[in-house]
Amino acid sequence: MSAISTPTLGLSRVMLKIFIVLNVIAGIGVALGLVGSFIFEVGLMDYYRERVIDDGLVILALRGILLLAIPFFAAIYVLLTRLLAIVETVGAGDPFVPENAARLKTIAWCILVMQVFNLAAGAFAAVIKSADAHIDWDLDFNGWLMVVLAFVLARVFEEGTRMRNDLQAMI
Length: 171
Hints:
The chain has one domain (7-170). It is 84% helix and 0% strand. It has helices at 7-39, 41-50, 55-92, 98-130, 141-170. The chain is elongated and about 75 Å long. It starts with 6 loop residues before the first helix and ends with a helix.
């Protein structure tokens, strides 16, 4: 297959690489925030206590969110790197390869992990709200739709690749 080069494909590569770097930075920030919650625990407790909020409960819930965010950012990293690999095969002129079907399936699992994190974050948000602290959280049905879409696309790629291989074998 011949290589394909379009402005949107080049822009996609650049954006994905930027997103990968930003995701790593954000993941490091979350890890540092988790560590900082222990180092600055007394200050955090004082802050919430001044606002007549159950400081122990809020700090525990915040730590739970930060701890769960680590696999969340790992899932984003895996998703972005697999998507970049798919974009590279498009640029090479042959996106319908078995590896891309596997990559799409991995992307689907990553989106699922992200959605489970969102549900867990919602549970922690409810705990924080019960302690009279303000936090916003909404259930996102679009993400669950993306899980289904990604798994279906992975299956379509698997079947399309199989059909293409069958056709090439006949020729």
